[in-house]
Amino acid sequence: xxxxxxxxxxxxxxxxxxxxxxxxxxxxxxxxxxxxxxxxxxxxxxxxxxxxxxxxxxxxxxxxxxxxxxxxxxxxxxxxxxxxxxxxxxxxxxxxxxxxxxxxxxxxxxxxxxxxxxxxxxxxxxxxxxxxxxxxxxxxxxxxxxxxxxxxxxxxxxxxxxxxxxxxxxxxxxxxxxxxxxxxxxxxxxxxxxxxxxxxxxxxxxx
Length: 207
Hints:
This protein is of the alpha/beta class and 207 residues long. The chain has helices at 13-25, 73-76, 80-90, 102-108, 153-166, 168-177, 196-205; strands at 2-6, 30-35, 39-42, 49-52, 54-55, 64-67, 95-99, 116-117, 133-134, 139-142, 145-148. The chain is 33% helix and 20% strand. The relative contact order is 0.15.
């Protein structure tokens, strides 16, 4: 299985690195970071760069794509090279997936019309503008379109895909390898459990 993760200026690091780590540990999987051209691409905090080792043209038929979100997603919606690549490779993928605001890039490629989908809690109510039916779940599977909610949900999504592709035993082995056994110190990771003041403070961090 070959997974491709497209990078664009202003993506969120964990959106890309979380699924990458899960899938890269899986036997028989190859994961490639792609961009308009090979080279380093900087995240939305400006302190992390990931090396894209291939261009979009170099990877025309991946089995899976994982589109990250981030503060740069709004600008990326008008990136025709990226949006066109998503639409073109979707014709051949087993799964076309996104993390966080990456679902809006799937929408820009015309892939969410009539689909159930999720995104970051601060943005999910805007998904109908992309033709999607918003669903407040961490991972939403609608045919071969798979969307994950905010940032950390990309790890859950990658494990879900791995279980379907290679079996639950393999997915559980990778989960153990990366010691993904979250015990957060606070019950503040969902807008359902956060106060209005906390939601407002969190939203202000998104810029």
